[in-house]
Amino acid sequence: MRYILLISALTLAACGGGGRVSGDIGQACVDAGRRDASPALCTCVQQVADQTLSNRDQARAVAFFEDPQLAQNTRQSDNSGDRAFWTRYRAFTDLAGQICQPVEIG
């Protein structure tokens, strides 16, 4: 499955991502205003989220863009539901980090 995501991400990057980002995580990525948050990168991240996280998990992860302290609290929580979510979330971020790289222009 990682190879399919990688091929999709590379194809998308080669096409420039179309300039339009869909999905809650993709939009949160763009809205966060980070320097490397291009439409192509954020679309790739959304594609990985679609393959690895449920809609409910994606909605929960969006809150981390708005409130980084919430991510820290979740990571450190003793609640079994939080721990299970954090395991899924880390798998998503690790995979997105492997296949979604910022594209340098110029």
Overall radius of gyration: 14 Å
Order of helices and strands: HHHHHH
Quaternary organisation of the protein chains: single chain
Distance between the termini: 32 Å
Show unreliable segments: 9-17
The major pleated sheet works out as: none
* Global outline: globular
* Helix content class: over 70%
Q: How many strand elements? A: 0
Chain-averaged pLDDT = 83
Tally of helical runs: 6
Determine the structural class based on helices, strands and strand pairing.
Answer: mainly alpha
Indicate the proportion of strand residues. Answer: under 5%
Domains, number: 1
Give a quick set of tags describing it:
106 residues; mainly alpha; 6 helices; globular
Reconstruct the topology from this structure:
Blueprint: H1 2-15, H2 24-31, H3 39-52, H4 55-66, H5 68-76, H6 80-99
Helix pairs in contact: 1-3, 2-3, 2-4, 3-6, 4-5
